[in-house]
Structure formats: C-alpha cells, structure tokens
Design a protein that fits this description.
The complex is a heterotrimer of chains A (298), B (325) and C (328). In chain A, helix 4 runs antiparallel to helix 5, helix 4 packs parallel to helix 7 and helix 11 packs antiparallel against helix 12. Chain A contains twelve helices and no strands. Chain A is globular and about 75 Å long. The longest helix of chain A is centred in the middle third of the chain and has 37 residues. Helix content of chain A is 69%, strand content 0%. Helix content of chain B is 32%, strand content 25%. In chain B, helix 7 links the parallel strand 7 and strand 8. The model of chain B has no long low-confidence stretch (mean pLDDT 85). Chain C is an alpha/beta fold. An eight-stranded mixed beta sheet of chain C has the order 6-7-8-3-9-10-12-11, with helices on both faces. Chain C has a four-stranded antiparallel beta sheet with strand order 2-1-4-5. Chains A and C meet through helix 8 and helix 9 of A and helix 2, helix 3, helix 4 and helix 6 of C.
Chain lengths: 298, 325, 328
Amino acid sequence: MLKTKSQPEERENEVALGGRSRNKEIFRRFLKNRAAVVGLAIIIVLTIFALFPGKIAPYDYAAQQLRNKYMFPSAQHIMGTDEFGRDVFSRLVWGCRTSLVIGVSAIAIACAIGVAIGCIAGFYGDIIDNVLMRIIDILLAVPNTLLGISIVAALGNTIPNLILAIGLGAMPAFARITRSAVITVKEQEFVEAARATGASNRRIILRYVLPNSMAPIIVQVSMGIARAILTVSGLSFIGLGVPAPTPEWGSMLSSGRNYIRDYWYIITFPGVAIMLAVFAFNLFGDGLRDALDPRLKN
Amino acid sequence: MNKKILEIKDLHVHYLTDGYTVKAVNGVNLSLARGESLGLVGETGAGKTTTALGILGLVPNPPGKVIKGEIIYNNENLLRKSDAQMRKIRGREISMIFQDPMTALNPVLTVGAQIAEVIRLHEKISAGDALIRACEMMRLVGIDDVRHDEYPHQFSGGMKQRIVIAIALACNPSLLLADEPTTALDVTIQEQVLDLIEKLRRERGASLILISHDLGIVAEVCEKVAIIYAGEIVEYGTAGHIFDRRAHPYTRGLFDSIPDFSRKVHRLRPIEGMMSDPTKLPEGCFFAERCPYAFEPCRKIVPVFEPEPGHLVKCVLVEKGKAPQ
Amino acid sequence: MSDPNATPSIELEVRNLKKHFKTPRGMLHAVDGVSFKIEKGKTLGVVGESGCGKSTLGRAIIHLHERTEGRIFFRGRDVSDVDEQQLKDLRENMQMIFQDPFSSLNPRMSVSQIIAEPLLIYNKCRSRKELTAKIGNLMDTVGLARRLSNSYPHELDGGRRQRIGVARALALNPEFIVCDEPVSALDVSVQAQILNLMQDLQEEFNLTYMFITHDMSVVRHVSNEIMVMYLGSAVEFADSEEMFLRRLHPYTQALLAAVPIPQIGHKKGRSLLRGEIISPIDLGEGCRFAGRCIYAKENCFDVTPTFDEVTLGHFVACHYVREINNLP
C-alpha cells in the first residue's frame, strides 16, 4: 500500500472507530466529580420513587385515617400524617412521580423545539434568524408563570396541559441559548474544514455544530427540570396544578401551609423534597457538562 | 566594567495539576551583564515564558511553584521579596513586553491613560505631568502624540506593539523582558518594532532578555544566546559561539530545521520525534532520546562543559571532543 | 463548458478573480483581479502579509467563499459556477489543509472519526472493515501511529494534529490541495517534519499544491513558482529561483529584506518600506503599494500599473520596474 519516507512513528495494532468506548470515558470523568455523583444519587433515588411508588410507600396516598390526623413523625408514619390523616411519606413518594413526569416531559418538549429553532436560526442567520427570533422574543416577553396560568386556566388543569404549559414557557430560553452557542461555533475553522470536505449543512449541524454547543444546553436542561418542578409546585400552590387527590409536592405545601405553626412536618418534608430535587438536577447538569467535554481531562 | 545585573542560579519551576508534576523549568542557570542583550531560544513548552515569569515573580501559584533556585537582581534575591516589594520592582526596574499586543492593552482606556497609569504607579507625579510624560513616550516610539486620547482598537497591530513598548519603557527600567514581541506581527512591521526596541534599549542602557523561537531575530538583536530545551539551558554563549560554532546536537538540529533562505535544499533535516513529556522526563540528558549521537553516558547525569571561554554546552560529546562537526 | 485554450498539463487556472466583502465601512476588496496558472504536480507559493487576500484567494478557489467576479478552470473545465452536486464532485478533487491544527479539527471527534468523515460523506467504503483499513493506511501515510486512532485532537501536539489535517485532506485522493499556512502554527523542528511529509506526498501522488504562507524561507523551500500579493492583487509572479535571484517589485524587495536571517553580521541595510499596510476598502485607481513605496512618483498614485511580463515568465505590476532595476 501507500508508503512514504516520513514515518517517525511505529505502526501498531488496529484502528478503532468509535473512539475508545466513549461512554466509559465520560462515565469515568463524571464519577470523579463528587458533587455530580451526589446529584446523580439523589436523582436515582427520586427515579426509583417515581417508578415504584406502590412498592415503597407504606400506605395508599389517598387513604385517610381521620383518627390519626396531624401525627408527629413516628415509627408508623416516618414523616407524620397530614390534616386528613394521610401518610406524608407515602404522598411524598407518589408526588415524586407527578413532579418528575411533568418536569422531565415539559423540558424534553422545550428542549426539542427550542434547540431546533435555535440551531436553524443561528446556523442560517439573516431573514430566517430574524423571523424565528422575533417569535421567540414575543414568547419570552410573557412571564412563564403567567403563561402557565393562562394555558391551564383555558384548557383545564390536567397533567398533559401542565406539561404543555410549562414546556412552552421554557422553550424560548433553549432557543436563545442554542442560537448564541451555534453562532460562536459555526465561525470556527473546523466547520469550514467540514465544508471543504464536502459535508452537507445537515451533517455540519448535527456532527459539528450541535455537539460543540451542548454545554450550555445541558446546563439549561438540568436547571430547566429543576425550575419546572418549582413551577408545577407553584401552580399547584395556587390551586391550578394537579387535581386532588393526586399527590404533588407543591399542592402538599399549599395545603399544609395553614398548619405550619402547629405541625411543621406537614410542610417541611415536601419543601425539603423540592429543594433536594432542584439541587440534585443542578449538580448533575454541571457534572454532565464537564464530563461530556473531552477537553476537560481528569 | 561588566557588572552582572541578573543572575539565575539553578531555577526549578514545577506546575502541579491533578497529581501530575509538569517540570517546566529544571535548573536554569543564566547571567546577564548590565546593558547586555540575551536571546532565549526554544520551542513551545521549553520553559521560556515560565523563566521570564519567574524573574517577575508572576508564576501563577497554584498550580505553579518555584521549587528551588535563586534569581539575583542587583545583588538581591528576588525570590525572597514580598509581593509588595515585587510590585515596586515590576514595571519600574524590570518590565515586560508581551507577545500579543491585541490582548496586552486594556480596550476601554485611552492609550495615553494607560501609559500615564504605569508612570503614576511608580512615581509621585500629578495626572497632568504623567500624561505629558506619556506623550513624550509616544513620540519616542514613533507615534504622533495627538493620538494619546484614542483607544487601542483605533491602532494597527504594529502601532499597538509600539504602545506596549512605550508602557514597558515609561519608567526607565534597567531590565526589559520581551516575550516573542514580534510573533504576532507581519515581517515588515516586525523589522520596525525590533529596530525600535534595539534603539531604545541602547539609548537607555537597559539590559534585554528576548524570548523567541526565531533564530533570525535573535541573530539581529542579541549579543548572548541561550538555547533552552525541556526546561534546561543546553547551550549558552555569545552570538558568535551559537551561530558559528554551535556544539549541542539540539542547537544543530534547530538550525538544520529552518529552511535556508539563501539557497534551496531538496529536503530539510528535522529533529526526529517530539520533546519529552514534561511530567516524566528521562534520567540524564533530556535530549538523548531524540539525539542522533546519543550513547550510553547520555543516560546518566550530564555536566556542563566549556569548550571555549564563555561558551557553555550541556553535552557529553563536547567533553570528549567528539562533537560532530 | 470546456475551455479550448487550456493545455492538459495545467491543473488550475484562475482568471481575473475578485472577491469583495460588504463591510459597514465600505466594500472590502479582499481579492481584486488575480490571474495565474498552476501546472500539474507543481507548487505555487502565494506570499504576502496579513490582509493581502491570500487566504481569501485560496478559499474562493475551492468555493468556500463565492467569488465576486472572474473564472476558475480546473483541469481545463470551467468550474466557476457549480451547483451543489458539481461542487461535491469538485471537492473530491480539491481539498484544503488549514493553518491552525488546534481549531480546524472538531474537538468532539476522535482521530479516526475525523479521518473517516470525508470517506463517509462520499460513501467510499462498503463496509466497516474497509473503512478501518483505509483509515489505517491514511494514518500510516502521514506518519501517525495507529494507536492514536482513539485519541482526541486536544490530547495531541501541534505536529500530530497537523498530520490529522493532512490525512483528512488526502482521504479522497484529491489532485489539488490548497495549503493555508499549514506550518505557521508549528515549532521549527516540527515544521520541518510536516514540510518533508508534504513534499513526499506530492512526489508520491503527483499532487498539485497552492501553498499560502507569510514565511519567506518556507515559500522558497516548497514552491516551484511564487506569487507575491499586496492588498488583494498580485504584484510579482515568477519561478521560485528566478524570484530569489532577481526580485523586481519594490514590495518583494522590501519583504525579503525584512526577513531576519539566522546568521550574525547579516544585519542588512535599512528598511525599504515606510508606514504600515492599509485596509483595502473602497480603493480607487493607483498602485496600492505607492503609499509605502520609497520609489513612488506622482502617477503611481493615479494610474494602476498593469501586470506585465518583464522578462520571460517574470510578471511585475510596477510602472518603474525597469528604472528601479536598471533593466533595458
């Protein structure tokens, strides 16, 4: 085959294609980041809660034991009971499912639409950019909560409507962030190099521009999920969230607030749960962003 | 009278990152007489810039750390000075010209203000007087002083580097460090900037350490030359020693790698391989694994030899008189 | 679309190529009417200072920038206006090596993925096995150890990265490669390695290079012919040996005189230049170099000089080239 005189390096073994089991490498880097691992651990626990609430919760979330109202945490009810005598821990576990499902699906929708719009706007520029971004600006001008309230109020407070409302509210941020990242990346020389090798626009966007714009998007996803959980809680708190008796952290907070002076545990545990979930997603997102960047070694 | 202004003895600087120790500078010895100009030549990662930052007390810490050594400037060891004392020395006694004039200037301050600022940092004079001095400096580096209230982006690259030089010389330093001062400039502009540095240095009797990878520039400007490889000075001498009677195989390789301007050769003779990983430097001579003449004694500690007065070479071959001619 | 005048040994011909950019300050004449030919298997060196339009010229030829005016002939065929499919076919034969091996490689792709890209885009391999075999061969050709196939560009030094860039450009077996300052980001010892590699590849595959650089010693080493550019237009064109023996344009003379030579006592006479390069925005008539030229006379500022053949094969754009050089 081809031979040349300049061969300062020895030939060895075979060529591997996909990068040395890239996922393993990413995982290894991720594990080195302790805060991110803590975040991941919390997320895993929450996910288990969300997947198997029936197995974990000791009681039915709606079972009322009116005789055992406002019970202080004890061996039977580790987080106490609420004003209807329902087990707070069981409701927290079931509520986890509601909050996570809404948060994750809403952000998945927001991310898919937002990243697509941002990419196209940023990559093609000019008129396309102008039109798309003005639409996004209009959406951005409406406060998220207000948008959520109006959609839910108009269409009814079901879980799909909540997902739609929150997803639509979170989408413009994704579009903006993606667009600015894409504009920076597309000016780089390796994009020009890809064009010189004959790559199509589609290929350039998917293999060159997007992978190099991921960092801010990932952070936005993790923070978006955290914020979505807060928004659901907020909507539930004002009575526009998940319909009773489906447990949800925000509505638990809302209904427990009347008893905060006498029975602090009714409101404290859901509050801590929201805080922990938000915290965990933020840590996880930061860690993932760093692990995905092959330049940040070790 | 050839009094020493600067003497570096056995300087070691390491960078500690994630459990690795990058040995950037490994026992640099250098001395510089008052009014002399020294060229420090080496490739990327050879420790040129770290040495300069060491002299200024600006090695970033962490991750960098001066492990041992002495830097004696005017009979005082700079490594023993406090931060406050070093701040007084930087800019006034020793100043530095950086590689990239685009980033060395503050984009939101007028150039006159930037020159005046340095003067006021070191001298108790009024803002008005400082600006007058700044304008003098601008004329000195060949820029019309009516432009003192313009911002850096209004100047071309060569002009910006002149302003950087004006800032470096504003307080009449006795030692000037220039780190690749013309690498970012075009060759016709490079010529003008080098001439300017050389002229001002001579007029003011300052000493100069010119850091460069370009042997051509060093040949034009410097009286003494030090070749640095993997954090060590491998060869040191007058320009005559280095350019006409170079002895170290690395120095020879460096010269052979440059395409000859005055005649056409069919093939270049590059140095094979790459510089050793600075986290795991070999025993003995750091250049041995790339050296075409390496033999057994090179794997042990290599002392410095002096084949002729003032010409120092760190290579076993030189001692045995076997140096390839 | 074929051109009857082109001889078969001419690989690339460019006629009166212009590339103008619209800027807020006016029309930027990056390339302003450049013409040249490159013979097959030869290297044309294009030299000039930053902003002289040499990079834009290279990019316009391989259609990374759409030209404003002029015609490009590749192997006798007019390739000035091409549709998407023709462009793709064209790029199989015209590739580019970029200046900065740090920014011209996608940091998210491994070495093998980067080299595989052109092969995948052009469906050159029927199986994964064929693909890995081809990548392996390319890595051998450019002197990259196969064990590095899984590494990422940031893990490698500049010389190895530039070898990746060379391998990527070679993947499709092109005939013509635009090399945009391929060694100026490298240390001299590594630079020599890459220059030797490129020379070997040229001899082996009969490649044609357009070698863009600002480094006078490099250009002499690699080129068969040299074109000197100033502010978007060619000021001198000649055989490489001829150019270094008899440089006729005052700008070329100044440029070569300014190069520092690594010999002591070589300090030459004073500068043949004054001032700095201006930006080529909304240029009027007149010689572009006149403002910096020590020989400039009044009509230099008013009349644009033509690009004339002063001696055989030696073209110069200067009104006073004969007076300056004491030519008949």
